[in-house]
Amino acid sequence: MRKVVFFLVPRLHLLDLAGPAQVFSTAADLGYGYQLYYVAETEEVSTAQGVPVKASLAWPELGRDDLIVVPGWRSPRLSPWPPISARSKQVLRTHHASGGSVASVCSGADALGAAGLLDGRRYTTHHDLTEELAARYPKANIVRDVLYVMDERVITSAGIASGIDLALHLVAVEHGAVAAARIAREMVVYARRNGDELQESAMLRHRGHLSDLAHRVQDVIDSRYADRLPLADLARAAGVSERTLTRVFTAATGLTPLRYQQLLRLERAEHLIAHGTTVESASRVVGFEDPRMLRRLRSRTPAATA
C-alpha cells in the first residue's frame, strides 16, 4: 500500500489539494493500492477559498515507495518565506534522502525550494511565480510553460488543475497508462500528458472525446495491444459493423483502430529500447512479428532514434 501524504499549509488552494487527492483516491477505489494522509502544522488549516480543512499533526511512518505532496497556497506574489517550519523542511529533506518522492503543486514548489530540494534540479511552478522563484532559488533550473517536471524524485507542477496531470502521470509510471486512462475516465477529465517525461502518451492523448463506443474499443486495445486484433473481432466486441466502428473510432480519435494500436506498440517499444532492450527484443514484446515493421514505424517518428 503506497502512502500519499498531503502536507497542508495555511491558505492552500482547494483544487491544488482536491485534484491530485481525487486521482489517488479514485486509484485506491479501483484497487491500485494507495492510502491517503493529510498532515499540517495546525489541526485546522485555512484555505484560499474560505473552507477550513482538518489535518493530523503527526506524520505517518514513510518508506521509499511513499510520496509527499505539497499543494500550493494563495500567492499572487510569494511571501518572504514559505509558511512551513524548520521541522517540516527537515521531514521533506529526510524523506527524499531516504529514497522517497516529493511533489508540489503551484507555489508548493517554494516549500521544496526552502527545503533545499530544488537546488541543481529542474522544476516548474505557476506562470505568475516563475520569475520570483527563479530569483529566490538561483541554483535551480526553472522550466517554463510545461505542466509538470520530474527530476530525481522531485516532481513539480504548474498549478491548480495541473496537479491532476501530475497525479495521473505518477499513477501511469507506477501502474501503466491504462490505469491512468481508466482513472481519468472515471473523473471525466481530459487526460493531458504535456509534462517533462512521456509528454504525449497515446493512451491518454486520444482519450479526450465523448464517444462511449470508441472508449470501449480503446479499453480492449489498451489491454491487448501486443495481440493480433482483427477489425472484425473489435467490431464484434463492440456490437457494430466494421464500417461503423472505423467511422466512429476515427471521428473520435483521429486514428483508425490499427493505427492506434501501432502507436501503443511503438510507445512501449521506445520505452524498452531507452532502457537497454534491443530493437529485436522490443519488437517481440510489443507484438511485431518482424522487427522491420518496428524500424519502419520508428523511422517515421521524428522523436525516435535508431
TrEMBL record:
The keyword Transcription applies. Coiled coil: none annotated. Residues 215-306 form the HTH araC/xylS-type domain. It comes from the Bacteria. InterPro entries: Class_I_gatase-like (IPR029062), DJ-1/PfpI (IPR002818), Homeodomain-like_sf (IPR009057), HTH_AraC (IPR018060), INH-QAR (IPR052158). Keywords: Transcription, Transcription regulation. SUPFAM superfamilies: Class I glutamine amidotransferase-like, Homeodomain-like. GO terms for molecular function: DNA-binding transcription factor activity; sequence-specific DNA binding. PANTHER family: ARAC-FAMILY TRANSCRIPTIONAL REGULATOR (PTHR43130), HTH-TYPE TRANSCRIPTIONAL REGULATOR RV1931C (PTHR43130:SF3). This is Transcriptional regulator GlxA family with amidase domain. It comes from Kribbella italica.
